[in-house]
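Please complete every field before forwarding. Incomplete forms are returned to the sender.

SECTION A: IDENTIFIERS
Entry label: holo-239
Bound molecule: adenosine-5'-triphosphate
Molecule representation: SMILES string

SECTION B: INPUTS
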Amino acid sequence: MTNALTITDVRKTYKNGTEALKGVSFGVRGGEMLALLGANGAGKTTLIGILCGLVTKTGGSAEVFGVDIDAHPEQTRSMIGVVPQEFNFNIFERVGDIVIDAAGYYGIPRSVAAPRTETILKRLGLWDKRDAVGRTLSGGMKRRLLIARALVHEPKLLLLDEPSAGVDVELRRGMWEFVVDLNAHGTTIILTTHYLEEAERLCKRVVILKRGVVVQEGEIAELVRASGAKNLEDFYLRV
Ligand SMILES: Nc1ncnc2c1ncn2[C@@H]1O[C@H](COP(=O)(O)OP(=O)(O)OP(=O)(O)O)[C@@H](O)[C@H]1O
Ligand SMILES: [Mg+2]
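SECTION C: PREDICTED COMPLEX
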């Protein structure tokens, strides 16, 4: 099966000279759910930004389901859904419209987007808020709105940049059930999180970035066992 994602020697040096990525390479198999971990500033959000076209890389290449992101940016972007770390929707727009309008960017007609939006908002517990403007949502609701918006074009690859930050315990459980269900139905998922027990419970494989370099990659259970660590968190702290 084609890799969902193949990243080869990707580099990013920001204009101020910060080397956020220093030649990152790894692959993600179709259908898997991978944890992308690393300390603050390791380069996770930069890498996600490159994949969805928000950040211009300074070197290397990336393919989404075998399609090069530079050669076919629109095609690869339409295969990717991203839940960004920062809230970036129009806070004066209504929840339902935020999701439906996102579909418009991908050329999906309203007649298709509207029922999809209903399904997704119901799954994420936001249907009651469909007519509320974004500004009036709580932090955890905003986070779930970002997830809804990322899914409306039915992406094959979902990039979750700290999706559970600020989401309460109960809703977080529902959110993970939803994400696991998406994965079970074939969506490939890359999850960035600082909650390592969540990463360990949800993901089979992990890639750990440290100051712009991949320092560990592999099956979580194997890495933990081989290192003699107690669990992923213990392993991570040793790395
Ligand atoms: N727009 C920017 N201009 C300059 N430097 C940047 C910019 N965005 C990020 N950086 C720098 O690039 C490095 C990687 O940042 P990035 O946001 O990718 O890290 P991260 O792994 O997502 O961290 P966190 O866990 O805190 O979200 C950091 O040193 C950061 O300061
Ligand atoms: Mg980040």
